[in-house]
Every structure is written in C-alpha cells, then in structure tokens.
C-alpha cells in the first residue's frame, strides 16, 4: 500500500461518545493530588533540638549524596547551619562544596557573603582573596571584594585590591569604579590618573567619551574634558575618531559650555569629514559605513541643523542648506557619472555659493570632475550634446566669473581635442573658441581656428560665422574666397547663393551679382529654388530691369506652373516696372486657362481670389463683375476613403467647386444621367405591370 493510502482517513464519521471541553477540565481537576503541607515541628528541649538537627543534616546529606554536583543543595545546607549558628559546620559545607566545583563563582560569592553577614571580615577577606586568585576574570567577585573593603573603611586595602584588579585589564566599568572610588575619597588627582590609564589601555571612542563625560560631570574639570575630546579626534585611529558620536558629544559639550563658535567649527569639520547628509559614503580605509553608524551621522546632521537654527545666523543656515544639496549632488553623480544634468546643477550651485565665499577651486574641481566623464559611445552624437555644454559653461565661468580669458581659451582647446572630429563635430565649440580669440584681440588665431574648423567639419554655420567676421572687418576679398569654398562644399544651398549675391550687390558689383544668380539658378539640385528665383527677380526689379524680370518669370514658368508664380507674375505686370494693368489681366487669363485645362480647381480658386483683389484695387465695376462671374460654387460631397492597400475605410465629406464656365459640360453630363434615370423607371414600371397580368391569369 502506498504512503498516500496509509495517511488517508478511512472513517470520517463522528465518534459514538462525544467529549466536551467542560468534561475534560472537570476530570483534570478531580485527578489532581492535593498539596500536602509539611508538618510544624515544635521543639521543647535541647535533646529534641539536637535530634531535629540530626534529622535535617541527614536529609541534606542524603540530598548531597543523591545529587552531589547540584550546588543548590550545598548552599541550602550551609544556610541551614548558618541559621543555627553553626558557622564552622557551614564553612565545612562550603569547603566540601568547593572540592566538588572549585571554579563556580556563585559558590565563592555565597561563601564570602556568609562571612560578611556574620561580620567575619578577615575570613571574608581570605575567601575573596582565594576566589579572585582562582577566578580573576569574574568581575562580580572583585566588586564584592572592593565593596567590602570600602564598607569597613580600609581605604588602603581597597586601593590595593583595585590595583590588583586593574592588572588583569578588566572592562570599562571596573576602571570607572576605581576612579569613582578615588573621587569619593576626595583624591581627584589619583582619579584622573586612573582615567588616563584607562584611556591608554583601551584607546577607543568609547573609553575617551566616558573619560570626557566623567571629567565634565564628576570631576567638574571642563578643561580636562575638552582636552580628552580633542585627543580623541587626533590620537585615535580613523575608524574610531571618525565616529559620529565623537563629534556629537564634543559639539554638545561645547554648546553646554557656551562656546558656540567652537561647536560650529566641530559640526562643520564633521560635515566635511563624514560627508553628512548622504545615505552612505566610503571613507579612506573604510569598506562600508554600517547602518547604525549611518543613523548616528544622520542624527548628527539633524543636530547641526537644530544648532544653526537656534544659534546661527543667515549665513550659517545657508551653509547647512548648501551642505545638504552638495551631499545630494554627490550621491547623484556617484551613482551615474554621466548624469550631466546633475553636474550642471551641482556646478551652478557652487557658482552661486562662490559669490559669497570667493572660492574658485571648488567650482573648478566640479567642472574638472564633470568633463572627465566622457560619453562611452563615440558613434552617436546625441550622447555628446549635453556633455559639450559642460565645456561651454566651464569656459564661460572662467571668462565671466574669473575673468581669465587664457584659461577659458585652454578649456576650448581641450574640448576640441576630445571631440572625435572624423565621426562628428560641433560648430558651436569652434565658433565660441574663435570669438574668444577675438575678445582676446588675437585675430590670427581666430582665423586659423575657423580655417581648421572648415577643413575638419565644413558645417554651414562655421562658414556663415566666418564670413560675418570678415565682413565686419571689411575684408570683401576674404568673404568672396569663403563664399567660393562654401558653395563648392554645398552647391545646393540657396541661402548661400543669395547671401553671396547680396554681398556683391552691397559693394555695387551688379554684374557680379547677376552672374552669381545666373550660376545659382542653373544648378541642377537646389534646396529652396523658390527663394532663389524670388531674390533674383526682386534684384532685377530693384535695378529697374523690368524686361529682364519678365524674362525671368517666363523662364520660371517653364520650370514650374505653380499658381503662386502666376499670381506674382500678374501682380508684377500691374506695377510700374511691368507693362501695365492690361498685361496683368492677360497674365491672369493665361493662368486661368492653364489651370482650367489642367483641372486644378483649388488653384483656380486661389488665382481668382488674387485676381479679384487686384481688380478691386486697379479695375472698375465691370472688370470686377467679370471676375466675380468666374468664381465657383462650393458643393459638399461624399467619397469613399481608402488606405494604401486599397481597402475601404469609410465615407468622408469633402468640398467640390463648380465653375460657371464648366456648366455646359456639367449640364451635358446631367442630361445623360437624367435619361438613364428615366429609362430605369420605365423598366421598373413595365416589370410591375407584367407581374399584375400574371396574377390575374392565376385567379
């Protein structure tokens, strides 16, 4: 049979006899045996007394024989003899017990208490002396020994016992007891020497703090307490001296003494050394801050905040806030060194704090730490954008805050060395570095830097800034050379062609300007040709060359028949540079005929709107009415909307235009539709009549 079948309950039916909890409790009470009290023994004479002692001793001896190692039996036996004033017998019992377990400290203690209760001082002294020799590490035997000596008033022997005890290097409480004993005796110099020996024997934060507390509260020596606190910070090992409770106790001591400046210095030193305000921080020679120590540091930081709120001024409170912010930023940049936003905020905070403290080194340290964290990827420019701004802010800080243009220039030089120019570059850095050279009045270095930038990156902005610089200096030939290189690198850039032509126009070189425009419009690929053609036409109009402008419009219409070109051409003809209003109307008519033939309804509407505005300004009522008669009627219609694959998505509404000139074609189409509808109705009527005839025949 399997184990599952063995553990399965076979009969789940209730038992025939049910037992209640009340019945169980009643039976348990009935079965308990009644407590039998010992009989009261009354003794009438000495013989009965001796008989009683023999019986009791026999009882104790039997217990000892039965359980010899049980010390309680021995102690009860000795207590019985003591109660009957049989001290020698009691001592004999303890001596016999010591033969059984001589290293039992409780047994020695009970033996000594026997002698002390009955004022056998020398015997008690002998017992305790034997006990501490045998068990020198049991502190309560020593405590009992010195307590007895002090109670009997033998100061010399008590001091001797303490000296013997101290040779075994006991715990802290033993030293404190020795010092308090000397204090009770009025020997404060001896007590101070004892505490010094204690601090030297146990060089730890605990011993120094207890020494300082004793000096302040018991010895009433504030100078000694301050010396002990200072020694704890200087003489102890780092793992002991950097504990938060040392600074906390020291600062609280100075505050109690009214030395608020001393307390503030201690708090600030703790903040700087322990990095207060952070959850955890690894110090020199320290693997990790324990949780309890971190809690103590948080309490110390809160105590400093409370101290500054109570005793400090505005600057002190600001220092607290800055220290907390600094700790928070340190935590963020430690967790993620490439969190450049945290570096920005950290540096900005230090710059604002620098205005009050005039400490440039801290800000520079932050920037140097920040720029040392180069983005890990050199393939994606996006990762470098925030990083590059760190360099820019660093240089601006050196220039604007420190007024050190040389260091600012070196910052840009270092940044340019870090950027991987073969993969990507940043025109902002090149331009800012060049402008900084100009502010340093070093034009040669600026030109060299911009020339190097054109060779390495060749970005549009570098060309424009370099040209603007040379143009501001009046170097037209240099500008022409730069525009030539600019257009060789980017022949499709219409903005560059326009700016080049405007440069020639500004210096009075009309033919050169026209030649540049001609060369520009002859390019096969342009990014914004409409802007280039417009600038070319505007140039000819400004020069009073209406025929050339008209020819340009005609050339442009050969390339594109866009409605805006037609409108601009017609408006040009209506100006003084054109042939007049008649030529403008002819152009509008040409455009309308072309758009009508091409079936571009929306473009025709735009053209007619512009034509109507033109007639309002330059025409009369008759010409305006003619244009109005050409305006279309807007009609709302529905059509099936489809996706890229041709699947139907649903019906949608749209607006269509019906032009008056197109009504003949539309009317013919409508007549065909009407005839088709009538034919369908006739077919339906004929089908209905035939069905009626069939029904009558069936009847």
From TrEMBL:
The keyword Nucleus applies. Residues 327-491 form the Pre-mRNA-splicing factor Syf1-like N-terminal HAT-repeats domain. It is found in: Nucleus. Residues 74-273 form the Pre-mRNA-splicing factor Syf1/CRNKL1-like C-terminal HAT-repeats domain. The keyword Cell wall biogenesis/degradation does not apply. GO terms for cellular component: spliceosomal complex. InterPro entries: HAT, HAT_PRP39_C, HAT_Syf1-like_N, HAT_Syf1_CNRKL1_C, Syf1-like, TPR-like_helical_dom_sf. Its main location: nucleus. Keywords: mRNA processing, mRNA splicing, Nucleus, Repeat, Spliceosome. GO terms for biological process: mRNA processing; RNA splicing. It comes from the Eukaryota. Belongs to the crooked-neck family. Involved in pre-mRNA splicing and cell cycle progression. Required for the spliceosome assembly and initiation of the DNA replication. This is Uncharacterized protein. It comes from Cyclotella cryptica.
């Amino acid at each position: 049979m399997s184990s599952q079948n063995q553990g399965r309950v076979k009969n789940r039916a209730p038992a025939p006899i049910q037992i209640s909890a009340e019945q169980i409790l009643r039976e348990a009470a009935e079965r308990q045996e009644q407590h039998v009290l010992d009989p009261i023994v009354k003794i009438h004479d000495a013989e009965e007394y001796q008989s009683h002692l023999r019986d009791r001793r026999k009882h104790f001896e039997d217990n000892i024989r039965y359980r010899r190692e049980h010390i309680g039996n021995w102690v009860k036996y000795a207590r019985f003899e003591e109660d009957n004033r049989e001290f020698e017998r009691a001592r004999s019992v303890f001596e016999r017990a010591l033969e059984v377990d001589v290293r039992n400290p409780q047994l020695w203690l009970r033996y000594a208490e026997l002698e002390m209760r009955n004022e056998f001082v020398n015997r008690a002294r002998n017992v305790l002396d034997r006990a501490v020799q045998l068990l020198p590490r049991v502190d309560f035997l020593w405590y009992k020994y010195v307590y007895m000596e002090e109670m009997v008033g033998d100061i010399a022997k008590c001091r001797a016992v303490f000296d013997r005890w101290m040779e075994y290097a006991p715990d802290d409480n033993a030293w404190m007891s020795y010092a308090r004993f000397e204090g009770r005796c009025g020997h404060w110099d001896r007590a101070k020497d004892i505490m010094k020996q204690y601090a030297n024997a146990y060089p730890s934060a605990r011993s120094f703090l207890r020494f300082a507390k004793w000096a302040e509260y018991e010895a009433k020596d504030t100078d000694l307490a301050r010396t002990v606190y200072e020694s704890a910070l200087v003489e102890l090992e780092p793992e002991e001296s950097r504990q938060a409770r040392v600074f906390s106790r020291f600062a609280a001591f100075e505050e109690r003494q009214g030395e608020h400046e001393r307390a503030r210095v201690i708090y600030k030193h703790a903040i700087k050394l322990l990095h207060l305000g952070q959850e955890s921080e690894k110090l020199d020679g320290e693997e990790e801050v324990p949780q309890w120590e971190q809690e103590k540091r948080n309490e110390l930081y809160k105590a400093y905040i409370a101290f500054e709120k109570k005793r400090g001024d505005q600057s002190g409170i600001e220092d607290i806030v800055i220290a907390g912010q600094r700790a928070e930023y340190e935590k963020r940049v430690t967790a993620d060194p490439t969190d450049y936003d945290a570096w920005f905020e950290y540096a900005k905070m230090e710059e604002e704090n620098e205005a009050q403290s005039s400490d440039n080194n801290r800000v520079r340290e932050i920037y140097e730490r920040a720029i040392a964290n180069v983005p890990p990827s050199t393939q994606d420019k996006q990762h470098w954008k925030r990083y590059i701004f760190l360099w820019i802010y660093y240089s601006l800080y050196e220039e604007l805050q420190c007024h050190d243009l040389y260091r600012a220039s070196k910052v840009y030089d270092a940044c340019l060395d870090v950027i991987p120019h073969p993969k990507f570059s940043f025109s902002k850095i090149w331009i800012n570095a060049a402008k900084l050279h100009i502010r340093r009045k070093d034009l040669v270095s600026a030109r060299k830097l911009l020339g190097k930038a054109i060779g390495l990156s060749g970005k549009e902005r570098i060309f424009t800034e370099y040209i603007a610089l040379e143009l501001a200096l009046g170097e037209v030939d240099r500008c022409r050379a730069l525009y030539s290189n600019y257009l060789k690198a980017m022949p499709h850039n219409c903005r560059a062609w326009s700016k080049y032509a405007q440069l020639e126009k500004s210096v009075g070189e009309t033919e050169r300007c026209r030649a540049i425009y001609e060369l520009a419009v002859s390019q096969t690929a342009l990014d914004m040709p409409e802007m280039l053609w417009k600038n070319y036409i505007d140039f000819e109009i400004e020069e009073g060359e209406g025929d050339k402008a008209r020819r340009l419009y005609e050339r442009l219409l050969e390339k594109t028949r866009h409605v805006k070109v037609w409108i601009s051409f017609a408006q040009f003809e209506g100006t003084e540079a054109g042939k007049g209003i008649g030529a403008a109307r002819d152009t509008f008519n040409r455009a309308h005929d072309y758009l009508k033939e091409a079936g571009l309804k929306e473009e025709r509407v735009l053209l007619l709107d512009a034509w109507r505005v033109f007639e309002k300004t330059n025409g009369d009522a008759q010409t305006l009415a003619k244009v109005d008669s050409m305006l279309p009627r807007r009609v709302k219609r529905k059509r099936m909307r489809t996706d890229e694959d041709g699947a139907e998505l649903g019906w949608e509404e749209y607006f269509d235009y019906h032009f008056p000139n197109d009504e003949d074609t539309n009317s013919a189409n409508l007549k065909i539709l009407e005839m088709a509808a009538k034919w369908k109705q006739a077919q339906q009527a004929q089908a209905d009549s035939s069905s009626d005839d069939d029904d009558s025949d069936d009847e």
